[in-house]
């Protein structure tokens, strides 16, 4: 989204509406997708494949946490269920009665919207899909440039880039693995990558800087990535006006957040001080 500061200067900030811990919408639903787009962000959809080869939005390996699947189906793997079976479950009511009747969407439903809105984008967080099938579905809708493929395994990012070169790729790295993992991909010259996402978890220590990953590491990573033509994204599980301001002051312009509306309001405050 672009935000105007108090001098009328546009500041482009990209942000992902993280799904599995989203506090504002039922995760991996079409309602969540539209909510993020309408706020000016980029929704994420976690992707899994059904027994009959349909790619759907689902974070967990089973439907127990997020749907009304029967006791008999609660612990069944999504990969063992057909799409018709999955459509019997409600994917919204566990979050709120407001979303009763919400169904688990197919990836094709999401991509169909993208094909009609070239200004929109989507993150695809790989959980369990056949990558050849995934690339074919994306290419069917002609939306490769609107898709950001995400995973923690560099090899999967390389594979999807080979299958569909115009798709952007993002490698996400948990904060406790950052020293080793960032060095490993740096040695490859960030092969087949467009974005690196670093998870920022709150420190248990009382100190001025909120996160366990240190400010200097982020600054160095941002410089390295910028030099290589890549972007740095940070997943901020928790933030306030002060901590977000510090990240923006470092020059970070790509975020993943669990509270999209709160993030947008805080962002607007920053640029209009």
Tell me what the structure shows.
This is Glycerophosphodiester phosphodiesterase. Residues 13-267 form the GP-PDE domain. GO terms for molecular function: phosphoric diester hydrolase activity. With 273 residues, the chain is an alpha/beta fold. The chain has one domain (2-50, 106-271): Alpha-Beta Barrel (TIM Barrel), CATH 3.20.20.190. The chain has nine helices and eleven strands. The chain has helices at residues 30-39, 83-86, 107-116, 131-141, 154-163, 178-187, 215-227, 241-250, 260-271, and strands spanning 2-4, 10-12, 14-17, 42-49, 55-57, 122-128, 147-151, 168-173, 195-200, 231-236, 254-257. The chain has an eight-stranded parallel barrel, surrounded by five helices. It has a two-stranded antiparallel ribbon with strand order 1-2. A hairpin with a 5-residue loop joins strand 4 and strand 5 (55-57). Helix 4 crosses helix 5. The longest helix is centred in the C-terminal third of the chain and has 13 residues, at 215-227. The chain starts with a strand and ends with a helix. 38% of the residues are buried. Residues 2-10 have low confidence and may be disordered.
């Amino acid at each position: 989204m672009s935000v105007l500061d108090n001098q009328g200067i546009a500041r482009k900030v990209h942000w992902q509406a993280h799904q599995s811990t989203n506090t504002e919408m039922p995760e991996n639903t079409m309602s969540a997708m539209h909510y993020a787009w309408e706020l000016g962000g980029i929704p994420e959809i976690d992707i899994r494949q059904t027994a009959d080869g349909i790619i759907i939005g689902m974070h967990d390996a089973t439907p127990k946490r997020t749907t009304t699947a029967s006791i008999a189906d609660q612990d069944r793997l999504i990969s063992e269920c057909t799409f018709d079976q999955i459509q019997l479950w409600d994917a919204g009511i566990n979050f709120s009665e407001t979303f009763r009747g919400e169904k688990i969407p197919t990836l094709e439903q999401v991509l169909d919207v993208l094909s009609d809105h070239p200004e929109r984008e989507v993150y695809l967080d790989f959980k369990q899909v056949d990558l050849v099938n995934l690339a074919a579905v994306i290419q069917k809708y002609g939306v490769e440039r609107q898709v950001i493929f995400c995973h923690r395994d560099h090899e999967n990012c390389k594979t999807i880039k080979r299958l569909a070169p115009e798709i952007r790729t993002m490698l996400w790295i948990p904060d406790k693995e950052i020293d080793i993992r960032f060095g490993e991909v740096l040695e490859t010259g960030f092969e087949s990558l467009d974005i690196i996402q670093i998870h920022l978890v709150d420190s248990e220590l009382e100190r001025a800087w909120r996160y366990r990953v240190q400010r200097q590491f982020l600054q160095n990573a941002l410089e390295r990535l910028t030099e290589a033509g890549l972007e740095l994204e940070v997943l901020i599980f928790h933030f306030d006006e002060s901590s977000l301001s510090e990240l923006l002051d470092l020059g970070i312009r790509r975020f993943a957040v669990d509270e999209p509306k709160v993030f947008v309001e805080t962002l607007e405050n920053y640029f209009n001080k």
